[in-house]
User: Fold Release factor glutamine methyltransferase from Amedibacillus dolichus.
Amino acid sequence: MASYREVLKKAQGKMEAADRGEQAAFLYLLELTNKEAHNLYMEYDEEMPQTQIDEFEAGVERLVEGEPLGHVLGFEWFYGYRFKVNEDVLIPRPETEELVAYILAAYDEYFKDTLNVTAVDVGTGSGAIAVALKKEEPNIHILASDISEKACRIAKQNAQDNDAVVEVLCGDMLEPLIERNIKVDILISNPPYIPSDEAMEDSVVNYEPHVALFGGEDGLKFYRIIFEHAKKVLKDKAMMAFEMGYNQKEALSTEARKYFPDAKIEVIKDMSGKNRMLFIYLNC
Assistant:
């Protein structure tokens, strides 16, 4: 049998030859063998069990074809929690973890002394944002909505798997809240914000749901829908938090000011220095 080192080197060669990069093969091996990187290094020259070799090589073939690592594994880690993912939901991205962190910080600043705080994650997909927020701040009553029934099922499963109480409502954008006359303190959304004509990597376009990616001609379609109807679901004192495209600061800020001229509007950069989050504060 081959060693971990030999099996990985072979896989990385295949990935490089396919112009996929070698990091995914290493991460896949760590997850498949349930090892930390330092443990794997210590066992590099030991024989790898044949059953694991067979499973690993089959997965690498899928990676070579461009399938995302999350789909090959069947899950993705987000904010320290494990989430089931497949072709029905967008794979949660690391930059969205920063959105969660800033929401938690804003909650502490503006709502820590408010009783019965309710938050909704609109377009929840896998439920990653909603579940992470509930796990990190159990005092918030968390709702999550999505137009896709398949996504709603996955979000419910992820909430259950992570022991998080999240109420999942299936419906278009804010409609489930409007229909139920629900008012929230915090409205969150990471909506589809990619312009419809923007070129994307094959691994994204071919494997992830387009309904979760593309936001109309300029990428702002779903923000406008939320802005137009937000006051129907927001309490007098409220906050909205959005992820956005790095180049949408001016356009999205302008749209926000049209609908909320008296609000405090803040654009926050991510760790890479790119404009990535929009926060809107009403009477805060």
Observations:
- Residues 87-282 form a domain with the Rossmann fold fold (CATH 3.40.50.150).
- The longest strand covers residues 234-243.
- The chain has twelve helices and nine strands.
- The beta strands are 75-78, 81-84, 118-122, 141-146, 166-170, 184-189, 234-243, 264-269, 275-282.
